[in-house]
Amino acid sequence: MRKVAMLGVVVLGTAGTVAFSASGASAASKCWVGSWKVTSASADISSPSLKFKFKGGKDIKLKLDKKGKATYNFSGSKPFVGSGTIPPGIPTTASLSLSKKLTMSYTVAGSAKGKLSGKPKTAKGNALLTVKAATGNQKIDIVKAVRQGGDFGVLPRKATYTCKGKTLTIKQKIKEKGLTSVTSWKARRA
Fold first, then answer.
1. Distances (CA, A) of 44 to 82, 99, 167, 172
2. Where are the domains of the chain?
3. Which residue of 19, 63, 89, 132 has the fewest CB atoms within a 10 Å radius of its CB?
4. CA separation, residue 21 to residues 47, 131, 137, 138 (Å)
5. Helix/strand/coil percent split, the chain, to 5
6. What does the pLDDT read at residue 21?
7. Nearest residue to 171 via CA among 7, 20, 33, 39
8. CB-based contact 112:31 (threshold 8 Å)
9. Distance between terminal CA atoms of the chain?
10. Nearest Cα residue to 52 out of 184, 185, 181
11. What pLDDT shows up at residue 152?
12. What integer pLDDT is reported at residue 17 of this predicted model?
């Protein structure tokens, strides 16, 4: 039971992973179009019996095109590191590392701020999440998890964003399978 609970926390923790994209309009008028590099990300994960905080994700590379396609390159990015408690209140730590690549389509409302709506069934690639925790280690196929709707917010699907000049901030709150994930990502133009 503890291993399953920890895995849920670990998958949620990667919500710090940034994802955005676009819906049709002029690229020049859309602040979010272009290449981005994550500078920091955080995720607070909770349930009635679990609390966890993760920070990390620096150097995730993201390219957003004007048609709504996001291309993520996780290779070389820093891991997410977290601590918290798992049932029945046992303190623990975990490290989450993302690797390889993933693409996904989005609908984006607005230019400088608005909503990001992901299309999970369009996710493609070979991205992996490697979980190292006191309760065990595991590799997770992120594309499969996103497509099946069991990623607990690893990639933003129903998020809000603010874009100003060279800075992009994305926030999301996901409630899924009894867990809540509140995430925030900051990226700079690459």
1. 9, 22, 22, 11
2. 2-189
3. 89
4. 30, 27, 32, 29
5. 15, 55, 30
6. 37
7. 20
8. yes
9. 42
10. 181
11. 65
12. 39
